[in-house]
Amino acid sequence: MPHEGNRTARIEARIAPGALRIVKSAAELQGRSVSDFVVAAAQEVAHRTIEEAQVVRLSVEDQRQFVDLLLKPPALAPALKRAKKAHARLIAPSR
User: Fold this and answer.
1) How far is CA 90 from CA 38, 76, 81, 86, in A?
2) Is residue 95 one of the residues assigned to a domain?
3) What contacts 23, CB < 8 A, 6 or more positions away?
4) For residue 12, is it within any domain?
5) 44, CA 20 to 30 Å: which among 18, 50, 55, 74?
6) What element of type H or E holds 27?
7) Is 11 inside any structural domain?
8) What is the pTM of this model?
9) In whole angstroms, what is the distance from residue 57 CA to residue 51 CA?
């Protein structure tokens, strides 16, 4: 991770001695400072967490069912047909 010249925020955290030993060891293996290692690890987990919250993953069977419903949608329920007609009456295309 390149050093950022504009570091303006600080984070403080308490860590158990055993956990700190592991973090220091991992940072040394990557040739980083503990601070750089922790920031990189936090960013990686943050990106993964955001992606998991924003990306919908479907099983193969769910993907097939989704595509089938897109290609062959079920018939509209009577209430939806009425709503569609009401919408067409109320929201006429502007010309």
Assistant:
1) 58, 20, 14, 6
2) no
3) 15, 34, 37, 38
4) no
5) 18
6) helix 17-30
7) no
8) 0.57
9) 11
Average pLDDT over the chain, rounded to an integer: 91
What the block records as the tokens of 38 is 């922790």
Domain that includes residue 33, residue range: 17-90
Number of domains the chain is built from: 1
Contact 27, 19 (CB under 8 A): no
Residue 9 within a domain: no
Residue 2 scores a pLDDT above 90: no
Under the banding of pLDDT at 50, 70 and 90, the label for residue 37 is very high
| DSSP code, position 59 | -
